[in-house]
Design goal:
Layout (H helix, E strand, L loop, with lengths): L4 E4 L8 H9 L3 E4 L3 H6 L3 E5 L3 H10 L3 H8 L6 E5 H4 L2 E4 L9 E2 L4 E7 L9 E5 L19 E5 L1 E2 L10 E7 L2 E9 L2 E4 L7 H17 L21 E10 L5 E4 L27 H10 L4 E6 L12 H12 L4 E4 L5 E2 L6 E2 L1 H11 L3 E4 L1 H12 L9 H9 L4 E5 L1 E6 L12 E3 L12 E8 L4 E6 H11 L3 E4 L13 H10 L4 E3 L6 H10 L4 E4 L1 H4 L5 H10 L10
The structure holds ligand 1PR.
Length: about 550
């Protein structure tokens, strides 16, 4: 029997490649919806809305899809799976509206309004593994275990109200709020989480839905009611970073530096190291290993992007295309996300075009390093004016804040006293006795660098992070050059200073050497995720050992299906 053909509503906004891959991984074929008439004829539609509500609804309007979709959804008997914005657009309206408008109208299938999480009360966006979503009476959860977590990334949510209770299939808790994490009525199913990024759990959710469509059980579901008592919890994420570059033979390799120096020491006793580039493996196969071992997210960083033309030299495109075929957790790509003018042709690529190519290749988030520092400097110099033109602003406006990570690469500058930099506005922090400077200095500020630590700028990591948040960044990958590769633990003073100054999530990076370092950074600072590279590449510690250590110490970590 030939399997059902899935009609995919890909309106060209973001990372739909992974949804395609999740459908294909379950053995189904895909037909792209490219014109409105295909909606009327579809047997089953999957709508992976990606980006912002306002751009999703605008594109649906422009393409003439709104009325056909309303027709398709009208009597609830035609199978539909909406993901993230594919769920939010089913509601009556959203606060994620075009500038100057308070709300924007949606498809109006489900009663209720989509609203924003309050930054004053919680970290926004809600990023990470949460949920334990399950409903025993719905066939879509047939292959999902009650204890498994799924991946969320969103700043807006649909609250449960009296009028949409009969739609609500599961609810999830975040920051004191309970929101709708999935809905079902008849054959219409939708989820706020991303099954295509929820590992094997997510693949099994897609499988449950498509199987129920195929065997007709999707329509015969009993009335479903959410369990009002059920509480869920966002877990702390363990992220693996792969620093990627060409080695001296032109091969793309994963490498890893000590304080950003990635070359082998040539002779014993030489500490600066000027030998060959360290080669720790191939990017895609190493990433696949980490996916199978339980990494919650994977970041690929093109660490020599500053040397080349951005568009002519995008080796990461192929890496992402290949990786996203078999890796179903969030993928971040960094290095070279900026506007760029080709010196030969004079052609200019803006940062949004560069990012779009990465999103289409399979990235879920882009990470912006050097360009963030430049944007923050201009923002501060202008007294806090937004131009709407920076890479952070343009990408965030189009794809949503959750798709924009900033990568900060600071170095410690030791100073004698707390007010040593008062005239510069650098945030000075006090160090633990174990962290004092070379002359016993008790204080330091964190000086931002660009081009992978090669050039230092007169601005501190806290100031850059706050400016980037104001410009629309959704998350901060917070490195520390002094700690990188040292295996002495994360820089807690830096993590505290930044995570207490912003409301967006912070990923602690640089310095992890064992399980205890993860537990320490999660218990002693506000960070939401912690990243390591070297200790995993060298197989010194397993990801599962880190998570077990966290759990033993009361820190929630992801439960997943192997
Ligand atoms: O400036 O936007 O083109 O982005 C360049 C990106 O490349 C930035 O994210 C920057 O951090 C990264 N990068 C540039 N040069 C290096 C280098 O190492 N020479 N790597 C580099 C930064 C930081 C982490 C690292 C952690 C954990 N690597 O990814 O993996 O420090 O390491 P550890 O657990 O082994 O201590 P742009």
């Amino acid at each position: 029997m030939t399997k059902l053909k899935v009609s995919l509503l890909d309106y060209g906004a973001g990372n739909v490649r992974s949804v395609r891959n999740a459908i294909m991984a379950n053995g189904y074929e895909i037909e792209d919806i490219t014109e409105p008439s295909q909606i009327d004829e579809a047997k089953v539609i999957i709508f992976p809305g990606v980006g912002s509500y306002r751009s999703a609804m605008t594109v649906l309007e422009e393409k003439g899809y709104v009325e056909p979709l309303r027709r398709y959804l009208a009597d609830g008997t035609r199978p539909y799976l909406g993901i993230c914005l594919g769920m939010q657009t089913l509601f009556q309206s959203s606060e994620e509206a075009p500038d100057g408008q308070e709300t924007m109208e949606g498809l109006g299938v489900i009663p209720g309004h989509v609203i924003k999480f309050d930054e004053k009360e919680m970290t926004v966006p809600h990023i990470g593994w949460n949920g334990r979503v399950h409903h025993q009476d719905s066939p879509v959860f047939k292959y999902v275990n009650e204890k498994e977590d799924v991946y969320f990334v969103h700043s807006y949510y649909a609250p449960i109200v009296e009028e949409n209770k009969d739609w609500t299939l599961t609810s999830t808790n975040y920051g004191g709020k309970k929101f709708i994490s999935s809905v079902q009525k008849g054959a219409i199913v939708a989820c706020q989480f991303h099954p295509e990024k929820s590992g094997k759990t997510g693949l099994n959710f897609v499988k449950g839905f498509l199987e129920a469509v195929e065997n007709g059980s999707i329509n015969s579901s009993k009335p479903l009611n959410v369990d009002p008592e059920k509480e869920t919890q966002l877990v702390k994420r363990v992220v693996v970073a792969l620093d990627v570059r060409q080695n001296d033979h032109g091969d793309l390799v994963v490498t890893k530096g000590d304080q950003y120096d990635v070359r082998e020491n040539e002779k014993e006793g030489v500490t600066t190291g000027r030998g060959g580039v360290r080669n720790l493996g191939k990017p895609v196969s190493l990433a696949a290993r980490y996916y199978n071992e339980g990494a919650d997210e994977i970041a690929f960083l093109n660490i020599t992007s500053f040397r080349h033309g951005v568009v002519e030299d995008m080796p990461m495109l192929q890496v992402l295309e290949e990786a996203s075929r078999s890796i179903f957790v969030p993928l971040t790509v960094g290095g070279g996300i900026r506007s760029y003018t080709d010196p030969d042709s004079g052609k200019t690529w803006d940062a949004l075009e560069v990012a779009s190519r990465y999103f289409r290749a399979g990235a879920d988030k882009v990470s912006i390093g050097s360009d963030t520092v430049t944007a923050a400097e201009a923002y501060i110099a202008s007294g806090g004016k937004k131009t709407g033109q920076t890479s952070i602003e343009t990408i965030s406006h189009h794809y949503g804040a959750q798709a924009v990570v900033i990568s900060v690469d600071p170095k410690r500058v030791y100073v004698e006293s707390k007010d040593a930099c008062a005239n510069k506005n650098h945030v000075v922090v006090e160090l633990d006795d174990s962290q004092l400077g070379p002359n016993g200095e008790k204080f330091c500020w964190y000086q931002c660098t660009v081009m992978g630590g090669r050039e230092a700028r007169d601005i501190c990591a806290v100031t850059v992070s706050k400016a980037a948040e104001a410009l629309g960044a959704g998350e901060i990958m917070l490195n520390c050059i002094d700690m990188d590769g040292q295996c002495n633990g994360f820089d807690h003073a830096l993590m505290k200073a930044v995570s207490e100054a912003v409301t967006i999530p912070v990923i602690a990076s640089s310095g992890a050497g064992n399980e205890q370092h993860f537990t320490d950074v999660f218990t002693q600072t506000q960070v939401q995720a912690a990243l390591a590279a070297g200790m995993f590449h060298r197989k010194e510690v397993e990801i599962e050992a880190v998570k077990q250590h966290m759990r033993k110490n009361g820190i929630p970590s992801r439960t997943w299906s192997h």
